[in-house]
Amino acid sequence: MTHRAAPEHTHPDKVPLITALDALGDPVRLQLVRELAVSREWTRSCGSFDVPVRKAALSHHFSVLRAAGLVEQRDDGPKRVNRLRREEFDERFPGLLALVLRGD
Amino acid sequence: MTHRAAPEHTHPDKVPLITALDALGDPVRLQLVRELAVSREWTRSCGSFDVPVRKAALSHHFSVLRAAGLVEQRDDGPKRVNRLRREEFDERFPGLLALVLRGD
Fold this sequence. Notes:
The structure is a homodimer of 104-residue chains.
Chain A: H1 17-24, H2 27-37, E1 44-45, H3 55-67, E2 71-76, E3 79-84, H4 86-92, H5 96-101
Antiparallel strand pairs in A: 1-3, 2-3
InterPro entries (chains A, B): ArsR-like_HTH, HTH_ArsR_DNA-bd_dom, HTH_MetalResp_TranReg, WH-like_DNA-bd_sf, WH_DNA-bd_sf
Pfam families (chains A, B): HTH_5
Protein name (chains A, B): ArsR/SmtB family transcription factor
């Protein structure tokens, strides 16, 4: 999948709490975050996640995660690769990612 | 406002993380929780909160908060009064309420 424009990002420092909670309160996005948390940075392309949604919906979910300061993306040749913004998100919302990553 | 049936509750122990996050990821519900947190238990009736929604929507928001283990309600004469389930929610999701109550 080739992307024309570079993705827009929001730094966690600029993210309201409600945006973060809303981003994480969705099963697909929770799964994306959890898979990213156990993957090396910049190794996961958008299509590599085990979530039951089509490309347009997936693209929307990644856009929500970027806007919530949770995910950073960059284009690597034809692929868009991802990393979890763990440290900076943790600093903004201490304990929230830990809660999400401990499972249920 | 008189209620026919007693409200149904879910104990925080039975609440999935995603249900809690989704319940809190809404501006009206966040406001309800924050106002409850600074009120004495069982002193706030459903109509006493400073939120810009009508009765039917408010009733839905309280139902979401009960299902997320965040709020307990009981009928006190003609009023339905509320308390935040602070201790038991905290035990289930440590740190989450603190994050919500610290403001933005």
